[in-house]
Amino acid sequence: MCDQHKNVTATRVLSVSSAKAPFEKTTIEQRELKPHDILIDIKYSGICHSDIHSAYDEWGGGIFPMVPGHEIAGVVAAVGSEVRKFSVGDRVGVGCMVDSCGECEYCLSGEEQFCTKGFIATYNSLDYDGNPTYGGYCQKIVVTERFVVRIPDALDLDVAAPLLCAGITTYSPLNHWNAAPGKKVAIVGMGGLGHLAIQFAHAMGAEVTVLSRSINKKDEALGFGADHYFATSDPATFTDLAGRFDLILNTVSANLDVNAYLSLLRVDGTLVNVGAPAEPNQYHVFSLIMKRRSLAGSLIGGIQETQEMLDFAAQHGIAPKIEVIRADQVDEAYDRVLRSDVRYRFVIDISTL
Fold first, then answer.
1. CA dist 71 to 53, 119, 121, 306, Å?
2. Would the CATH topology of 10-165+301-352 be identical to that of 167-297?
3. Inter-CA distances, 65 with 21, 76, 244, Å
4. What's the pLDDT at 279?
5. Topology (CATH) of 167-297
6. Global pTM?
7. In terms of CB atoms within 10 Å, which end of the chain has fewer, N or C?
8. 10-165+301-352: in CATH 3.90.180.10
């Protein structure tokens, strides 16, 4: 289907006019379809904690008005003249990136998230023409085909949406640091990221332990595939589990006692951070050097790995537990996320926009 609907004009969105402003229904102008572009009718858009950080401008550099959303699931509505991977009617997704240079060593190796020129974020970013990008709290979006992934038929679109950020954010480090049979993996936090990390680590064959503030979510964690569960509010946890884990995946967006968690690692163990607190953290270097431990971070994943993650999730029946909300409930949803009052991921039904 060549350049149908090429002159895309106004589309309805949820936007914030300034930091911490309430959401309002407005319109934006989408760009015309270029030869490699895809027009997507968005069906569902997940709410990520980073949406809140961005909309509240907690990381700085916010571009307003802002349309958040980088967990996008929908259906192809039109394709550019040179698109070959997708056709009208295909079920597709868009995650945290919508473009990169395509020429550097990382783009060429399928790790566009590390593009040396900097990838173009799905929202709150400037494209290579200097225009602001707008995200998934929107009826339609235009994205170059290289940054669109196929959603397997086994995944419902509302369930697939959070996988485009929360899914790849947890799958990628577990894959990179080899969560596998014989490995002991701990997941810190039992929220939107953590409950997916448990499922992925379990499906990869690792022995999975959940470390959460209280014992309240133990039954749910075990239901997601965890083998063990400990409350970090109990000081005995850090004594009893000292030197136990090959890999710890920290999914929380709050400052932790890094030294305490490093003490849980075996020799050559790694603590990987995917949660991103607004304030800097501290640790003692002896927590690393005495047992050759590593402190690391991980940033989403490339497009090829994101497709791999979706296929893996479909194959193993991995899905986020979601609460679908209307467009007029987003402000309330943000407040509830900050109160940890969600099991475990909000997804906006874009038809209500």
1. 15, 17, 12, 12
2. no
3. 10, 26, 47
4. 83
5. Rossmann fold (3.40.50)
6. 0.95
7. N
8. yes
